[in-house]
C-alpha cells in the first residue's frame, strides 16, 4: 500500500513547460487558403497614389507607342510607299478592332446596369406592394428574355396567367417560377462545375499557387457564365468589376470563410483531411467557390429569391462532390 502521490522522473529530467510557455496549438483544419487568396486579390484596393501612377504610366506608354508608330509609318511611306500603305491599313484595322472592343465593353456595362435597374424596381415593388410597378418589372423581364428559346415556355405561361395575379408578390412570384426557373437550373450547374474543378485541382495538383490560379480563373469564368445566363453578358472589364462586387460583398459580410452554413461541407472536409489534408482543403475551397456562385446568382438575377428557395451551399457542394466521386 502506497502513501501519498508518486512522482516518476523520466530520464532524470524535469519539465519547465508551463501554460504560459507552452507552444500554441496549431489548427491544422482545412481553411480554404486558395479561396482566401482569391478574395484578397480580387478585393485589394488600389491607393489614390497607385491609381495616379498607373493612369499616368498607361497614358505615357500609349502616347509614346502612338508617336513611335506614327514616325515609323511616315518613315516607311517615304522609303517605300507600297509598304507604308500596307502598314497604314494594318494600323487602321487595329484601331477599328480596338474601337469594337471598347464598344463591346460599354455594351456589357449597359447590360449590367439594365439588370441593376430591374432589381431595384422589383425590390421597390415588393416593399411597396405596388401591382403597377410589378407589372412593369414583369414587362421588362419579358423583353429582356424575348427571343431566348430556354424561356419561351415560361414566357408563354406567364402571359397566360399574369392576368389572374392581383398583387405584386403573386405576380413577381409567378414571373420567378416560370421565366427564371430554367435559368436558375443552368446557373446552379455552372456553380457545381466550378466547385468541382476547384476542389479537384486543390486535392490533386501539388504545385505551389496552382490552386490559387485555378480558383481565380474558375471563379471568374463562373461569374461571367452566370451573368450571361441571366442576360447580363459582360466583357473583360465588366466581368472583373462584377467579380470584385461579389467578393467585396462576401468579404464585408465575412462570408469568404468557413461559416455555419458550411458545417456539413467542413465536416466532410475534416474526414477527408484524415486521409489527405489536400482533399480536405479541396472540399473547403469547393464550398467557398459555391458560396461565391450563390452570391453571383443573387447579384445577376433580375428578381430576388421569394417564391423559390435560395440555393443551399451545402447542397451544391454535395452534388458537386457526388459528381467528382462518380455517384448519382
Supply the key terms:
328 residues
Topology:
Layout: H1 33-42, H2 48-79, H3 81-128, H4 131-144, H5 152-161, H6 168-178, H7 181-204, H8 210-229, H9 236-252, H10 263-275, H11 277-300, H12 313-324
Helix pairs in contact: 1-8, 2-3, 3-4, 4-6, 5-6, 7-8, 7-11, 7-12, 8-9, 8-11, 9-11, 10-11, 11-12
Q: Can you describe what's shown?
A:
There is one protein chain. By secondary structure, the chain is an all-alpha fold. It contains twelve helices and no strands. Helix 3 runs antiparallel to helix 4, helix 8 crosses helix 9 (236-252) and helix 10 (263-275) packs antiparallel against helix 11 (277-300).
Overview in brief:
With 328 residues, this protein is mainly α.
Strand content: under 5%
Oligomer: single chain
- The rounded Rg comes to 28 Å
Strand segment count? 0
User: What is the helix tally?
Assistant: 12
Low-confidence parts lasting 5 or more residues at pLDDT below 50?
24-29
> Percentage of helical residues?
over 70%
Amino acid at each position: 500500500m502506497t502513501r501519498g502521490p508518486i512522482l516518476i522522473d523520466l530520464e532524470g529530467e524535469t519539465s519547465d513547460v508551463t501554460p504560459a510557455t507552452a507552444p500554441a496549438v496549431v489548427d491544422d483544419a482545412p481553411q480554404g487558403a486558395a479561396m482566401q487568396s482569391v478574395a484578397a486579390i480580387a478585393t485589394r484596393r488600389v491607393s489614390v497614389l497607385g491609381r495616379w501612377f498607373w493612369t499616368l504610366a498607361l497614358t505615357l506608354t500609349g502616347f509614346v507607342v502612338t508617336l513611335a508608330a506614327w514616325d515609323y509609318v511616315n518613315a516607311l511611306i517615304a522609303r517605300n510607299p507600297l509598304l507604308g500603305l500596307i502598314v497604314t491599313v494594318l494600323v487602321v484595322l487595329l484601331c477599328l478592332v480596338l474601337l469594337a472592343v471598347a464598344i463591346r465593353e460599354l455594351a456589357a456595362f449597359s447590360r449590367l446596369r439594365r439588370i441593376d435597374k430591374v432589381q431595384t424596381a422589383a425590390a421597390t415593388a415588393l416593399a411597396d406592394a405596388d401591382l403597377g410597378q410589378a407589372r412593369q418589372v414583369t414587362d421588362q423581364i419579358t423583353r429582356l428574355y424575348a427571343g431566348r428559346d430556354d424561356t419561351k415556355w415560361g414566357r408563354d405561361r406567364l402571359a397566360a396567367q399574369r392576368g389572374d395575379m392581383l398583387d405584386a408578390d403573386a405576380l413577381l412570384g409567378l414571373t420567378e417560377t416560370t421565366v427564371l426557373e430554367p435559368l436558375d437550373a443552368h446557373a446552379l450547374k455552372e456553380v457545381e462545375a466550378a466547385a468541382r474543378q476547384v476542389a479537384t485541382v486543390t486535392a490533386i495538383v501539388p504545385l505551389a499557387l496552382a490552386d490559387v490560379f485555378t480558383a481565380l480563373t474558375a471563379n471568374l469564368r463562373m461569374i461571367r457564365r452566370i451573368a450571361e445566363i441571366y442576360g447580363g453578358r459582360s466583357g473583360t472589364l465588366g466581368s472583373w468589376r462584377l467579380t470584385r462586387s461579389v467578393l467585396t460583398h462576401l468579404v464585408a459580410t465575412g462570408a469568404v470563410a468557413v461559416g455555419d452554413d458550411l458545417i456539413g461541407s467542413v465536416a466532410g472536409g475534416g474526414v477527408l483531411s484524415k486521409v489527405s489534408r489536400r482533399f480536405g482543403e479541396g472540399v473547403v475551397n469547393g464550398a467557398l467557390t459555391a458560396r461565391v456562385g450563390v452570391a453571383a446568382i443573387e447579384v445577376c438575377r433580375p428578381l430576388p429569391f421569394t417564391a423559390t428557395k435560395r440555393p443551399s451551399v451545402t447542397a451544391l457542394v454535395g452534388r458537386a462532390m457526388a459528381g467528382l466521386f462518380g455517384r448519382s
